[in-house]
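Weekly sync notes, structure subgroup
Attendees: PM, AL, DS (notes)

Item 1: joint prediction request from the bench team. They want all three components modeled as one assembly rather than separately. Inputs as received:
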Amino acid sequence: MRLIAHAITPAPRPRVAVSGLRGRPLEWLESAGLGIWSTRWDTAEPLAREDVLDHHRVVEGICAATPCLPVRFGTAFADAAAARATLDRRSDALRDALARVSGRCEIAVTLLWREPSGGSAPRPPVAEATGPGRRFLDERRTRWSASEARRRRAAELVERLVTTLAVEPALVWHEICSSERVAVSLAVLSPTDQAADRIASLRRVLAGLSDVTGVVNGPWPPYTFAGIDESGGVSAGSATRLPGWPPA
Amino acid sequence: MSVQPLAPSDASLLELVDRLLNKGVVLIGEATISVAGVDLIYLGLNLVLSSVDALERSTGGSSGGGAPRT
Amino acid sequence: MTEQDELAELRREVERLRGILPEHVDVDPDGVEQGLAKLVLALVEFLRQLLERQAVRRMEGGTLSDDEIERMGLALMRLEEKVHQIARSFGLDPAELNLGLGPLGKLL
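Output from the run, pasted for the record:
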């Protein structure tokens, strides 16, 4: 038996209108003034890819009812005692994180380059009798100066979005150039009652950009702002990139 | 890598999946275990390699965004 | 250490990196080792790209002869071919080896 965790919310147990994964009962376990919502799961039963989006449905339903910290998908407890022990051990950090997200939601912006990378970079003139080794290094140099130009542009775009949002930096997370296609991935923690206006103004900015196409999503549960670090403090999201990559 | 243009709904879905698999509070060190079918490998560098590839093959190009399921 | 010495050492590092990779790989078709291979190759790829960037900076610095540039470029080119060939023999797309890519990167 396992308990697949979805979210942590303050006690006492609020009324929540959604079921657990695959329509199974959503369970509540409480300790230290906090509760964990989870779905009971048979140990032998594998999770399917649809369960990832189903977890989102559950988290959204919980967030609609109460301040909520989404738990990373796939986190499972061996039993109720293990879940309660976690709440006890991390109660201070979890309470801080809940205070941070209370009354707020996440808005996500994704900007994609319109042109494939390097597509429009001019090729340097090839000198006569240039060997393959030299051509290889020349091609690399061109590629990186193009990607560096992209990084500068992506940073500009982030500045533009942050200016539009006019919020304190701690409420914004972003990542630039996480792939060939993605210029900017950004998340902002916004008061829920301002979300619609913020989304509209972000969409207006996006409509005016010619070198990227973009999409604004939300309001979402505060996935990116639910983090607590190892020592129990609060952190914004958790990057999956190595710091310092790509090497300068 | 594919050079097809990415539809906004695809970008939305991918952004959502990124949230679901890589964000949210992480409760490492508790009695947490990976559940069969979803491999979450936490390396010392906080690199998370998940079975995103399997998800990619199934959701690549699909529409529907992050609409909640009933 | 002179420029030439540093360059010679850089080239040796590149060739050594290529040398530690096996000539031929027997791959478990079930892909059980694929996850580990991916991690190891990602690290090699990381180092390889670091060396490439160093070489380009050297070249831009204008202190290398044409011959040195050519030999450096060839060594790096062969190393890239080798790493990518090994990745493919594990059923991996070389583009997957970039550690720095976030999940959106992997999915695109």
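Discussion: Confidence is low (pLDDT under 50) at residues 101-108 of chain C.
Action: AL to compare against the crosslinking data before next sync.
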